[in-house]
Write a structure and sequence with these properties.
Strand content: 25-35%
Largest sheet: 9 strands, mixed
Number of strands: 25
Oligomer: single chain
Strand order of the largest sheet: 2-1-10-9-11-12-13-14-15
Helix content: 25-40%
Shape: globular
Length: 482
């Protein structure tokens, strides 16, 4: 299989590739630095990468992929128990890290390779690799047990990034800015490997700030990737920051992912900048499945249409495919295509359970689909599908409705057992004014007017903040009564 990054050996060597703060590499320098590290790990089965938001992480991952070695990205915020599980499960032969990094004790016995971004070597052809060879082993969040390692093959990386290039008209002339973590698909695959596959460049903020976004977009960046918490901060800042509004208006593409962006934030950003944020939908196991296209309608609240090469269907609870899409019928998303993972490492039971007999991956995400193919996610099957009074209700649309109330800053919706309804709808609210939270009757009427009476919350809990993970996703399993 050819290189995932042709620009490393083809084209101008002085073309900007990576920038982290005041540290940067051209394609020629990246090829030289990756060549040194690739030479040190060639022939290894897997290597771990201590995935801090730093230049060394990007160099390490590129080096391993060029050497034909699979990468296990490690979250620097992981606890020792989780790290111990990941290392025992994936058995990497070494850990690649920035010089001077202090590594926790579970990594103490693993050979350490310090990555030198200023190193000089050459990219030699990798051992014979195939499209189905492992590129990454990315560990899932482990909400129902220890994290599972999703093995992503080289073909999945290539096909997802090429499909996004088609959907987003992404070229080597684009300059991407983001501040996402690099141990996850969003920040690493889309945010670092994506620009490098196109022959473009990426500027990583290190830590997301609206000031950093303004600076980079005003200095030639064309694309911004973020998660909803970042766009929420942008939406809140825009009224008092005309420079930010001007910078966003100049961007070619604003993309949000990893969780649903509330419609309220969509509208606030569009009103201030004249630009629409587009959303896409993916998972660790599938990489990207759908997106709003750059040349399509940026319909707030949807994740667009299936990407080239991706088959997508909705199914009923009994697995029967939904054959007519009306924008209302809720079903589980199942996908097929070259973008999928090959297995959960060392977990043949979990791998088999994740697929249907004819090869469709069960995502566990619930959605509705419009007649023209647009997909709207309504939540996770396990935590966001509420069965109340004979109706199947997605938590996401209720959350969006609640966020339109001026007294609500953040909102999450869950279901809890109810003797009469089966489940009743419960709202978890961060009030805009903690001293004067909106009462339950007011919120219930607000939702009923916008959606339907059977979708109104029956219980409201007030919180100081919603529990979220590193990617900004609300951790609903942590929402429990005191």
């Amino acid at each position: 299989m050819s290189s995932l990054f042709p620009a490393l050996t083809e084209g101008p060597t002085d073309r900007p590739a990576l920038r982290f703060g005041d540290r940067s590499l051209t394609y020629g320098q990246l090829a030289a630095a990756a060549g040194v590290t690739a030479g040190r790990i060639r022939g290894a089965g897997r290597v771990a990468v201590w995935a801090t938001p730093a230049l060394e992480t990007a160099v390490a991952v590129v080096a391993a992929l060029e050497a034909g070695v699979a990468v296990v990205p490690l979250n620097p915020k992981s606890g020792e128990k989780e790290l111990g599980h990941i290392l025992a499960d994936s058995a990497p032969s070494a850990v690649l890290t920035a010089p001077g990094s202090e590594l926790p004790s579970p990594l103490g016995d693993l050979p350490r390779i310090d990555v030198d971004p200023q190193g000089t070597g050459t990219i030699a052809p990798a051992r014979s690799v195939t499209p189905d060879d492992a590129a990454l082993v990315v560990y899932t969040s482990g909400t129902t047990g220890p994290p599972k390692g999703a093995v992503l093959p080289r073909r999945a990386i290539a096909t997802t990034l090429d499909a996004l290039a088609d959907a987003w008209q992404w070229t080597g002339d684009d300059v991407l800015v983001h501040g996402l973590p690099l141990f996850h698909v969003h920040g690493l695959v889309l945010g670092i490997l994506g620009p490098l596959r196109r022959g473009g460049s990426v500027r990583h903020l290190g830590r997301f700030t609206t000031e950093g976004v303004t600076r980079e977009l005003n200095d030639g960046a064309t694309m911004l990737f973020g998660v909803p918490t970042m766009y929420h901060r942008i939406a809140q800042t825009l009224p008092d920051d005309p420079e930010l509004a001007k910078a966003l208006a100049h961007a070619r593409l604003l993309v949000s992912g990893s969780a649903a962006l509330p419609v309220h934030d969509h509208e606030r950003i569009a009103a201030a900048t004249g630009r629409r944020v587009i959303e896409r939908y993916g998972m660790t196991e599938t990489l990207m499945n759908t997106s709003v296209r750059a040349d399509g309608e940026p319909r707030a609240g949807t994740v667009g249409v299936p990407l080239p090469g991706v088959e997508l269907r909705l199914v009923e609870e009994d697995g029967a495919p939904i054959t007519s899409y009306d924008g209302e019928t809720v079903g589980e998303i199942q996908v097929r295509g070259p973008n999928l993972f090959t297995e959960y490492l060392n977990r043949p039971d979990a791998t088999a359970a994740a697929f249907t007999a004819d090869g469709w991956f069960r995502t566990g995400d619930m959605a509705v689909r419009d007649p023209d193919g647009y997909v709207r996610i309504v939540g996770r099957k396990a935590t966001d599908l509420i069965k109340s009074g004979g109706y199947k209700i997605g938590a996401g649309e209720i959350e969006n409705a609640l966020l339109e109330h001026p007294g609500v800053r953040e909102a999450a919706v869950t279901g809890e057992p109810d003797a009469d309804l089966g489940e009743r709808i419960v709202a978890w609210i961060v009030p805009a004014d903690p001293q004067s939270p909106p009462p339950i009757d007011e919120l219930a009427d607000h939702v009923a007017r916008r959606l339907a009476p059977h979708k109104r919350p029956r219980v409201v809990h007030h919180l100081d903040a919603l529990p979220r993970n590193d990617m900004g996703k609300i951790m609903k399993r942590a929402l429990t009564r005191d």
